Every structure is written in C-alpha cells, then in structure tokens.
Fold:
Amino acid sequence: MSRIVYVNGEYLPEEEAKVSVFDRGFLFADGVYEVTSVLGGKLLDFEGHARRLRRSLDELDMPTPEAMDDLLEIHRELVARNSIVDGMVYLQITRGAPADRDFAFPGAEVPPTLVLFTQSKPGLAESPAAERGIRVISIPDIRWGRRDIKTVQLLYPSMGKMMAKAAGADDAWMIEDGAVTEGTSNNAYIVKGGKIITRNLGTEILHGITRAAVLRFAREAQMEVEERPFTLAEAQEADEAFITSASTFVMPVVAIDDATLGDGTPGPVARRLREIYLDESRKTAI
Ligand code: PMP
Structure:
C-alpha cells in the first residue's frame, strides 16, 4: 500500500502527488515547515507547532492557505490513513507557483502550496541513542540572521550533519561569536552544578516547541534554569549536555569535540527530563 500524502486540498498516493517546477519552495527555498511527532497514534504539542507556523508565515508575509483552520483534521486524517503509530507528520507551506521564475513575490492571485506527509518510525521513543548518548562536533554557524523563522533553507544544517558523520560523530553544535547557538536541527543545553543552561530566545535560534515544554517541566520540577549564551569551553567542562527537538525529544550528549562529559554516559538531569517530557507529552497528545 503506498503512502497517502496531502497536496493542496487532496489526499493522494505519493506517486500521484505533484508540485510545480515553478514552485518558490523549489526555486528559492521560499517556504516554511513544521514537524509534529506522533506517539501511540496521537500528535504531540500540535497547538505549539500550529502557533509557530502562523508566526513563520507572518514574519515572511507569506499568504495563509485556505485549509489553515483544518490543519489538525488533516494531520489526523494522514495519521489514520497511513496507520501511523509512532512517527511524524511533516508540513510545508511555500509562497506558491507563479507563471515564471521571478525574485519578486507574486501577487495575491498565486495561492500558497500546502503539502503534508507522514513518516513511520516504530519505537520512536525507545531510542538506543538515548541510552548511549550522542557525540557532537562544533562547527561555525554561517546561517542567515533569521533562524527564529522555520524556513526550508536547510542546506547548511545538512552539511553540518555530514561534517559530523565524517568526524565519526552524531551531530554538530554551531558556534557564533564564541557561543553555542544550537544544534543543526535541535536546541542545545548544558548542565552545571544541577543548573540547566540554554541559550535565550532571539533571532539567532529557532524557538523550539520541545524547548518551551522541557523548560516548563523543568521549572515545575523545581530545577533551576538559566537562559543565556554559553561558550564551547563552558560546554566542554559541563557536567552534562543534551539536545531537544520534536523528533528526538530530550537526547543526552556525552561528548563535544574531544571532550567527554562526566563519565561518558547520559547524565541524570537529561535522563529525568526525557522521562518527564515523554510522560507529560503523551498525557496531552491529541
Ligand atoms: N533548532 C533547529 C535549527 C531546528 O531545526 C529544530 C527542529 N526543527 C529545533 C531547534 C527544535 O525545534 P522543535 O523542538 O520545535 O522541534
């Protein structure tokens, strides 16, 4: 049975789904996206992702698709039609497909393109990597200045993951002006003396939906949280480190470049936050 995807109002087998070669997502990376995780057939933090999507569209003056109010229903329909138990729903909106390639934004006559598809990942929450912890390398952050907008310009993050792979690591943390901004596709944290430190929100990083939830749960559990930039050296001397994202939840980091953190195994704060995050998000999944 082939996967059913959603394109501009239609549910289609993936082989029949088409987007124009003039689509601005394809030609200019003029598009935004969201990834929502599914556990036990239910969506995690759907409202948070929908809210950030609206903000991304607003910040780029991108038109809103007609189906904007039906996004929850479309997500659920795709999960059901593709029998997704654990996995994710990917959503992308682009500034549509005008008649010709032109840098200027098209007029209101060109509707945005809306595409959604699912990816099945059985056992998504039972990750062997989370038991082991991941190793990251540091790379310079050479991305554009509006990282708070979730655009599909993911070439540098892809290159960063390839650099990590070539170095025998799992992922990369990006450094700007001596401080860690974030991971290639996740937010970055260190733990020192029981205190959780993560970069404050701004245009330098994506405002992670998982980040917001994890910091809320941490504060509710009386853990101390400090939102500020931290240096690579500070991270390498930390007791623990971890990353968060919709698809990895809370993932312990056990090495940064040549520095092993603690005893080289996932630390207690990261382990506990992963457990709390998974428990709490399952409770509120829809
Ligand atoms: N930062 C970047 C650069 C990302 O690509 C992502 C995931 N898309 C995140 C952080 C984490 O965001 P979220 O928790 O909303 O998945």
About this structure: Helices lie at 24-28, 46-59, 71-81, 128-132, 155-166, 209-220, 232-236, 268-284. Residues 35, 182, 185-187, 206, 208-211, 244-246 surround 4'-deoxy-4'-aminopyridoxal-5'-phosphate (CB under 6 Å). The chain has two domains: 4-120, 128-284. The chain has a mean pLDDT of 98.
